[in-house]
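Recap slide: peptide-methionine (R)-S-oxide reductase, sequence and predicted structure.
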Amino acid sequence: MSSTESKPPVQLSDDEWRVRLTPAEFKVLRLAGTERAFTGEYTDTKTEGVYECRACGAELFRSTEKFDSHCGWPSFFDPKDSDAVILREDRSLFQRRVEVLCANCHSHLGHVFEGEGYNNPTDKRYCINSISLRLKPAEG
């Protein structure tokens, strides 16, 4: 797992984030909240393009790595680049999980799970909140 000890390139105060983000976006991206399953904008989206961090605009995931996991959130089997996200242990909710953060601003994106038979090239599921993302459709 990657460390988040270093400071991210994009650093804003909570007040600055609150100006930039809606209250719902702030709750998920900055307070590690979770949107309700099957309510997100990108859960079933098939549009080709790149998914960016809604907080800072960093490119995180591609539609070519998105798959239907039927879990209620957009799922990807790999990030766009290995250094696009940071993984950190999350022991909240009385369980051990791996949290996924934007490497550029350390905003909460979701969690990654592996070894559950996802039938994809990595056997991983990056379970990401739609509200943490913004889809930039492919041109053409």
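Residues 67 and 75 are 6 Å apart (CA to CA).
The chain has a mean pLDDT of 92.
(End of recap.)
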